[in-house]
Amino acid sequence: MSNLALAVRDSSTMLRRNLLHARRYPSLTLNLLLTPVMLLLLFVYIFGDVMSAGLGDGAGGRSAYIAYIVPGLLLMTIGSTTIGTAVSVSMDMNEGIIARFRTMAIHRGSVLVGHVIGSVLQSVASVILVGAVGVAIGFRSTDATALEWLAAFGLLVLFALALTWIAVGMGLISPNAEAASNNALPLILLPLLSSAFVPVDGMPGWFRPIAEYQPFTPAIETLRGLLLGTEIGHNGLLAVAWCVGLAVLGYFWATAKFQQDPKR
Prior knowledge:
The protein has helices at residues 3-24, 27-45, 48-51, 61-94, 97-102, 110-136, 146-173, 177-183, 186-192, 208-212, 216-228, 235-259. It is elongated.
């Protein structure tokens, strides 16, 4: 069997393993998924009328704020889901199963690939669920073309891939599952410091660079432009650049750490 065929076969096996774990132990994924859902309901029904005053002329009310907040929460959902990846990788590294895999005739990289693909699939499923909740409470994207919907889906998948590789690296450097969860906490906190809930223009001047120069804000603005027809500007290129950069960084970080850790 060629090296590529071996890698594909073993990666498929590891993917099935991770999906089976997610099915048998859904509590972690559900707990992380509840955060964006609860924030969506909280900000729409409790703060929606007040927060909408900061959107342009503020005439749209709660319905305008639903349209504004949903794209940001879709990306926040990806950040929440990938925390489960960091925890899962850390558990594998510290429970001895990785050491056993290393004694078997399997492609070494398949262990990480299985985690990454499984996490991306879970992220997409979580985004669909949160999106369905958004639609149920009034979110609409009537002006988006089929090509824009495809581009939006591609951005979500690329963003999930980038954050997943970062989460895998965080899981590999963590001594236990609790530390992995704490290390990956910025993946939830960064959306709170972005344009997910309020426009960057409405933030204090000293705080704007924090919101602008991070991966979530350009990705959120690009997703809004694709789904709602707002101006994207340079955010599209920035979003793709952030995704590619984080994916490459996470890949080399994770694989280097995985290769240099023979004690587990």
